[in-house]
Design brief:
6 helices, four-stranded parallel beta sheet, alpha/beta, 36% helix, three-stranded antiparallel beta sheet
Length: 154
Amino acid sequence: MSEATPFPKFIVDNMLGSLARWLRMMGYDTVYDKSLEDAGIAKVARSESRSILTRDKELSKEPGAFLLVDVDLDAQLKAIATKFGLKFHEELIRCSTCNGELVDLPKEQAKGKVPEGAHTANEKFWRCSKCEKAYWKGAHWLGINERLKKLGLA
């Protein structure tokens, strides 16, 4: 992305939890809070300069909102990528659970926090700066990359 275009941040409505996880895995700061009603989503969007991603026609009337008409996750990802110019940013992956930033986790500190097989098979680990969840490039990593490549996002 060019310097003139800020890296987009999102907030998604409660119908788009899977989309939030995928946007986070792509490196995009994405708020997903099932307890927020439309007014709360709009307030967070305004106060944090976030674009609203929604399947709700009423909420889509908010400034900066983008209505997703398709229920298919791949179609949603493609529509958002087209609208906002998104690509996969491996170095910016966020926690898929809580949206926290990932920080390096030394291998010796990962022991006991990840399955033994994952610890043995990998040299690089990360942890969420918020919820402390540990991450590594396991078998699931290939599936994530393949899906993003298939969609033209990686």
